């Protein structure tokens, strides 16, 4: 379960200490809440945000979750609305004891399982690698921005 | 029920209690693999963040599947047939929303609570106070519903619906949940939820197999037999039995509750807290996949059990035992074990009762932990924490005769983290005491609406803030504060003006009548209202582009995630 997940390796570098800066960064005074935009890192994040690679990851994520999520919600609401407003239609026979309502309900279960599987597959194949590379690039950029800001202050 | 059966149930309850306390002791004082130091916030609120996706998937399922869904959904199916399925579908469909929009960004941007995500982008203090307040409200509502339900169900299982069993159950469950949280933190709570999920899914699977064996694996036979014994015939298998004879308000109420269920799960603090226990966003995603499989399978089995109860016990017998249908599954297990007077029936009944007890304990522990995190990490942190900490440091200095401030930032950080955990422990006690105090006199009241209300508040106050923070560039602090208070207050006000509070025979105040809102669940109005508040509050201020860039980059890449 843990071996095939490349992100587990990155964990050992940090996350264990409360109130600490992100793994590669310098030690931030713990307990004191500095704002999330620390000196010099603002531009680093803005640069990553406008980079083509990040826009690609964001586009892939959003163009999957918004249409699929909206369609699923609509389909769920249509199902509930039909069940309460048109019981006659829902009681229509399909095959044997199976009626329209049962087929629709089981289809909800099936749609949930299918979308879960599809999302996980989409994320694994289309997003994970790009996002993982961006993560390191961002952390490098943020660290050098901080170093530069510290030296500038000296 | 004979005295022997009762004592068997009590022995099993005792075993569950002892086992969970042993888990708490083991998890609270045992190994520390790579996780945080003992007593650190990381350890207390996130269990060291090293749970595997499979473990967390089981724990999420354990957090989500309450006794209300096990007994309640099956009971509704046994009483009203198809209508029970609407709830099962709503509870399950919610996980698509959690998986798509919440799980991964939350793991990447948050530390412990929901407010961490919003506070990273917006002004910290107002956002934390607003989200902390609404998180505590949601948790207490949910906790009271669970405790009252637990008391009634256990009293029914012990065959003592009017006696002292209710009081002792509420007190006992309250004491145990505070003990798990205060002594074991997230690590103990997680392991209790994992054990409970295994017991619950295993129990449901075993009973479903027994039901199917009874009908020779023939689902058609099961369904026709259920329709026959329900006294409703073919209507039992189609929607409309529960609300078919009522007006449009009752039907709209079902839609409102459905909306609250499907959107509310993604805003429940105790569900969101579960994503902080895994190391990465990818692990968070995989734990949701696991939990969806478990929860989906579980609800399919709950449908089989409800149908089986209608077929084998009969709808009338279930209704006589409990008007809400909560005893359908216990009665079914009695019947499957061999029926009245048999040892098998009594043993199976007692085992189901023990699983229900474990379920209750695990759910309330998770909710209590989430409430204590909201108090300590959000509310206490934002309300003069630094002043109090300074005072504490000065007191330490006087006592020790040394200046602690010279020890550097490391010691100060440790102290801050430890004081946060100390506050959380006391908050768990306070929240537990409050919930028990409200639940004890609420015994005769109809509090079933509270679960729906908790989901509605979560969907109207928390989900807009989460989605706007993550996806809307122009979102601002004022929008967040408006969305939280707008969603929270509108849900509470609409419920106060609804028939569950006054003007109906089963209302909290049956003598009064100030009903203006016809629905029992406010979701269909308050959820759009919460989103609207967040959107309107936003439009005048200028957002901070840099901070949004940071949130967006972190939420999608995991850069700088703790």
From TrEMBL, chain A:
Instruction: Show the segment(s) annotated as Disordered.
Output: 13-34
Give residue spans, biased composition: Pro residues. 20-29
Record field: transmembrane: 64-84, 96-120
Keyword set, alphabetical order: Membrane, Transmembrane, Transmembrane helix
User: InterPro entries this protein is in?
Assistant: DUF485
Q: Which Pfam families match?
A: DUF485 (PF04341)
Write down the PANTHER family for this protein, in alphabetical order. INTEGRAL MEMBRANE PROTEIN-RELATED, MEMBRANE PROTEIN
Q: What is this protein called?
A: DUF485 domain-containing protein
Q: Which organism is it from?
A: Streptomyces reniochalinae
Lineage, please?
Answer: Bacteria, Bacillati, Actinomycetota, Actinomycetes, Kitasatosporales
TrEMBL record, chain B:
Q: How does this chain sit within the bilayer?
A: Multi-pass membrane protein
- Keyword set includes Lipid metabolism: no
Subcellular location(s): the record lists: Cell membrane
Q: Tell me where the signal peptide lies.
A: none
Q: Which PROSITE patterns match?
A: NA_SOLUT_SYMP_1, NA_SOLUT_SYMP_3
Judging by the UniProt lineage, the source's domain of life is Bacteria
Q: Which GO terms describe its cellular component?
A: plasma membrane
TM ranges: 6-28, 85-103, 129-158, 164-182, 194-215, 254-275, 287-313, 346-379, 448-470, 482-501
State the name under which the record lists this protein. Cation acetate symporter
Q: Which organism is it from?
A: Streptomyces reniochalinae
What are the top taxonomic ranks of the organism?
Bacteria, Bacillati, Actinomycetota, Actinomycetes, Kitasatosporales
